[in-house]
Amino acid sequence: MTRAYLFLMTAIVLEVMATTALARSNSFSRLLPSILCVVGYVGSFYCLSIPIRVMPTGIIYAIWAGVGIVLITLVAWIWQGQVLDAPALAGLALILAGVVVINVFSDTLH
């Protein structure tokens, strides 16, 4: 299971990298961000295919999407100066709480 989580975390990081590059690609008109975007998404989906062999698809997707949403929001906040108001922060906290509940309390992963 540890190997599955390692690949899942790698998939999340690559997806965040790809989404960040997508925002910088200017609709795929800039070469380097466009290449990083495509490579990042391909790598992310490959890494996502490893844990899906041993973990439930819905749970993997919930973790991948939830953590990815929070990380890409943090990247946009830190590097691009995007503003997060109280409702946005509360929503992100709820997403993180959901990921924690799945991982700590759910018997689905065991």
From TrEMBL:
Pfam family, any one: Multi_Drug_Res
PANTHER family, per database record: MULTIDRUG TRANSPORTER EMRE, SMR FAMILY PROTON-DEPENDENT DRUG EFFLUX TRANSPORTER SUGE
One GO MF term: antiporter activity
Family classification: Belongs to the drug/metabolite transporter (DMT) superfamily. Small multidrug resistance (SMR) (TC 2.A.7.1) family.
Name the UniProt record assigns to this protein: Small multidrug resistance pump
Compartments it resides in: Cell membrane
Keywords assigned: Cell membrane, Membrane, Transmembrane, Transmembrane helix, Transport
InterPro entries tied to this protein: EmrE-like, Small_drug/metabolite_transptr, Small_multidrug_res
Transmembrane region(s): 33-52, 59-80, 86-105
Keyword Transport: yes
SUPFAM superfamilies given in the database record: Multidrug resistance efflux transporter EmrE (SSF103481)
GO biological process: glycine betaine transport; xenobiotic detoxification by transmembrane export across the plasma membrane
Membrane topology listed for this record: Multi-pass membrane protein
GO cellular component: plasma membrane
